[in-house]
Amino acid sequence: MKNNKLRTIAVTAAYSAGEELLKRYYQYARGDAKFKSQHEIVTKSDLISEKIIISEIKKHFPAHRILSEEAGKISGVSDYLWVVDPLDGTHNFSMHNSLWTVSIALFNKNKLILGIIFAPALNELFLAEADSGAWLNGKRIKVSGYKGEKVINTFCHGSKVSDIKKALKYYEYHKLHDLDCRQLGSASLELAYTACGRVESIVIPGANSWDVAAGVLLVQESGGKVTDFKNKAWNLKSPDMAASNGLVHKEILAAINKK
Fold first, then answer.
1. How far is residue 174's CA from residue 21's CA, in Å, rounded to a whole number?
2. What positions does the entry give for Mg(2+) binding (predicted)?
3. Which tens digit of pLDDT belongs to each residue from 21-40?
4. Residue 42 has what pLDDT?
């Protein structure tokens, strides 16, 4: 990457935010959370992590645009757009479950070129670069080769009731017909797990771009497939997302689209 500096700053931002989050994680009291909606919470930790990441990006790339979960759109005049989830898995974080991440993606002229997912409590850094591959703590990763009876699927959902109902139908189908289906509580981590072969897929009705952008590139660069529920290539405006090792993609789309 010209990209060397872009990658370095993104990794620095992820580590800086993650280290601060980890300090707060061990001391966190669940009562401090505030509700954004019936199914969504935000904590001071989300906001502090976001401030660290945005500050790092703007310090080095003041013209770049940013889209972040809590701050929304931050304007700029560049073709570069950073898409940030400062704390993905806030519910997990709030109950001292270690499955939460910092997620940072970078687009250039609408092309996804960099994705970083850092899980501080697990000490795992996932990184992908367009047309270059994907890594976990510096080691190349690839999607699994499983299909059939050994498959483990995961799912997440947006906050709309329709998204939740669709996800529950999907969960019920796989729990009754396949080995297992899990909701880990962090969409970015489920994508990272798909990318490194720990699970075979993730589907998300009502996918938010900041939750999934970095993970989309991870799956693609590790040999997997990412689409919307109509089997069209995922983009920032896609209302839903399905990612897999490619071998089970037809099956997960059929399951999520069942009436």
1. 34
2. 69, 85, 87-88, 211
3. 999 898 876 666 566 555 56
4. 66
Give the domains, in start order, of the chain with CATH numbers.
4-140 (3.30.540.10), 148-256 (3.40.190.80)
Under 8 Å between Cβ of 242 and 201: yes
The C-alpha atoms of residue 167 and residue 173 are separated, in whole angstroms, by: 10
Structure-block tokens of residue 175? 């729990």
User: Cβ(158)–Cβ(203) under 8 Å?
Assistant: no
In the annotated binding site for Mg(2+), the residues are 69, 85, 87-88, 211
Q: Are the C-beta atoms of 50 and 70 separated by less than 8 Å?
A: yes
DSSP β-bridge partners for residue 241: 204
